[in-house]
Amino acid sequence: MPNMEKIHLAVVAGGDSGEYEVSIRSAAVVMKYLDTEKYDTVLIHIRGNQWTYKNEHSEDCNINKDDFSAIINKKKIRFECVYIVIHGTPGEDGKLQGYFDMIGIPYTTCGSITSALTFNKSYCNGVVKSLGVATSASVHLFKDKPYNTTNIIEKTGLPCFVKPNCGGSSVGMTKVKEAVDLEAAIQTAFAEDQEVLVESFFKGREITCGVFSNKGKVEALPILEVVSKKEFFDFEAKYNPVLADEILPAPIPSEVWKNCQETSINLYNQLGCAGVVRFDYLFNESTLNFLEVNTVPGLSEESIVPKMALHAGYTLSEFYDILIEGAISRHEKN
Question: CA-CA distances (angstroms) from residue 128 to 74, 132, 332?
Fold first, then answer.
């Protein structure tokens, strides 16, 4: 059989959020496991207005943003698919997705509208709650709008969690136990974002479920339980294996496992997700409580989704193939 022409693939990493370093590590893992027989891959680094790649001489060159093309070996390369590995803005909030939609290049994540909705924790919680899934009581704050800490506590109670409304990896997140500490926690979150979410504390065990589309069929990955050795599963605990136990498969009752996977698949479909996403929950004896959805979940060696995929029997090369082929297939259908 003749050799098939390789797909020109861009892996996009970096971004402008506190998850920059996580994105760089995730991209390195994706690059490591991509099938070099199938993909001619270029790593593209995005930081603000600087969109760069290394040419054949390992020199930094600028991407042509008019058509998202690169010049390699004196030949113009226009990418046929983009693997987005930017956690946070502009890769998880719909900005890059809208750009790629406009110039007609398929990408591996959810579309622009779903990405924008799910990136905004408060708005996403509202939609999830309307779909019949429990969420914590919360207050949504804006940097340029007044707020009253007493009124906030009346709604959320104590303890409560304060976090950037549009962010990930628990960057800027604080658990507040005393009313006197709430204002400082809000300012810590505002240092990371223009919007802040204050949520009531839900006592329960933390579990997470990855969901992806495999040739048009939505599949749930094995559920993982997170047991943090710190006050909560913060940024440090997420990327330091000494500070948290990640138990896979999660040692939870079968009915909780079934409910979690079915809820996650339903949310994936109802929110219009694509590619691989990860849904985080807390559960107790009576309730599965939605925490958030990650539409560009971490893919570094320490990250949860690669562990789930391996446990499900996929190699990472196979798993990434499925996501890339799915992106191209969705694009061809539109």
Answer: 49, 7, 29
Is the overall model pTM greater than 0.85, yes or no? yes
Assign 3-class secondary structure to 120-139: CHHHHHHHHHHCCCEECCEE
Please check whether residue 210 is in contact with residue 277, taking contact to mean a CB–CB distance below 8 angstroms.
Answer: yes
Beta carbons within 10 angstroms of residue 243's beta carbon: 14
Q: Do domains 115-134+203-333 and 137-200 have the same CATH topology?
A: no
Q: What is the DSSP letter of 4?
A: P
CA-nearest of 315, 106, 324 to 212 is 324
CA 183 to chain centre: 28
Are 263 and 293 within 8 A, CB to CB?
A: no
Which superfamily does CATH assign the domain made up of 137-200 to?
ATP-grasp fold, A domain (3.30.1490.20)
Domain ranges of the chain: 7-109, 115-134+203-333, 137-200
CATH for 7-109 is 3.40.50.20
CB 240 within 8 A of CB 170: no
Residues 6+ apart with CB under 8 A from 49: none
- The CA distance from 75 to 267, in Å, is 43
Of the candidates 9, 107, 12, 106, the residue with the CA atom closest to the CA atom of residue 51:
12
Give 10-residue mean pLDDT values along the chain (334 residues).
Answer: 77 92 94 96 97 94 96 94 96 97 98 97 97 97 96 97 80 92 96 94 96 96 89 49 85 97 98 98 96 93 92 96 97 87
The second-level CATH assignment, the architecture, of 115-134+203-333 is: 2-Layer Sandwich (3.30)
